[in-house]
Amino acid sequence: MIKVAVTGAAGRMGSGIIRKISEQDDMELVAAIEIPNSPLAGIDAGEKAGIGNIGVAITGSEDLEKTLKESGAEVLVDFTIAHAAVETIKRAADCGVDLVVGTTGFTEEQAQGNADIIKEKNIKAVISSNFSIGVNVFFKVLKDLTPILNDFDIEIIEAHHNQKADAPSGTAMTAFELVANALERKPEEVGVYGRQGQVGKRTKEEIGIHAVRGGDIVGDHTVLYVGDGERLEVKHMAHTREVFIAGVIRALRFVGSAERGKVNDMSDVLGI
Ligand SMILES: NC(=O)C1=CN([C@@H]2O[C@H](COP(=O)(O)OP(=O)(O)OC[C@H]3O[C@@H](n4cnc5c(N)ncnc54)[C@H](O)[C@@H]3O)[C@@H](O)[C@H]2O)C=CC1
Ligand SMILES: O=C(O)C1=N[C@H](C(=O)O)C[C@H](O)C1
Asked: Does the model's ipTM exceed the 0.90 cut?
C-alpha cells in the first residue's frame, strides 16, 4: 500500500485526487491537509470530496510535520499555490517524505530551490506542470517539430478557467522553455508576454506567450508556427481534470522507484 498525504485537499485537484485514490487497491489516503488553521480542520476529507466518510480528518498545514509523522505518509501530493508549495516541499523533504507536485506558478528561483532541496534531502520526486498524457506527448512533438520550423514565428496561447491564480500557465511556460531550448535561444531574452501599446515590429527571435481566462475552460494550449503563406498549429485541449488526476495516480505508482535526489517529470513516469 502506498500511503499518501494530499495538500490542497479541498481544492479542485486535491478533492479529485482524494476521490481517485479511494478507488485504488494499492494506495491509501492517510492525511488530507489544508491551509494553516483551516476552518475545514476536523471535517472528514471524503465528506468534503463527496465520497462519504473515509476516516481521514482534514488538518491545517501548521501541523504538517506532526501529521506526516503520525500518519506514516510515504508520499505527499501537492496541488496548492506556488508560495505555499515551496514551504510544503521543504517541510515534507525534511521529514523524508517523497513528493508528487503539480502546483504551477513557481518563479525560476523557487523552482531551483525546490530542485536543490530534493537533491540535498535525497528524496524521490515527480514535479510536472501538466500530468495529462496528451500534454506530455504535445511537449515531445514540440521538441521534435521546433528545430525543423526554426525560421517560423512562434507564439504560444493558453486558455483556462476564471479561478486560475497564475498566468501564464505552468504548461505554457514549460512549452516556451522547450521551444526556446530547441532553438538555442535564451528564454530570459526571447519571451514576450501579452503585447500592448507601441511595441514595434516583432523580432525573428521573440516567442509570444498569451493567457486567456474565462468560465470553466479546463486547460487549452496552442503553439502557432507562422511562416509566410502558411501556419501550423499544435493544440491540446483538456476536457476534464480527470486527465490530470489519472496522471497523478501513475506518478504515485512510479515515485517509489524514481531516481532519488532529482526532479523527475512526467516523461520519466511515461517513459517517453
Ligand atoms: N500539473 C497539473 O497537471 C495541474 C496543475 N494544477 C495546478 O495545481 C494548483 C491547484 O489548482 P486547483 O486545484 O485548481 O486550485 P484550488 O484553488 O481549487 O485548490 C488549491 C487548494 O490549496 C489549498 N492551499 C493553499 N495553501 C495551502 C497550504 N499551505 N497547505 C495546504 N493547502 C493549501 C487551498 O485552500 C485550496 O483548497 C495550481 O497551481 C494549478 O495551476 C492544476 C491542474 C493540473
Ligand atoms: O490551474 C489549472 O487548472 C491548470 N494548471 C496547470 C497549468 O498551469 O499548466 C495545468 C492545467 O492546464 C490546468
From this structure: yes
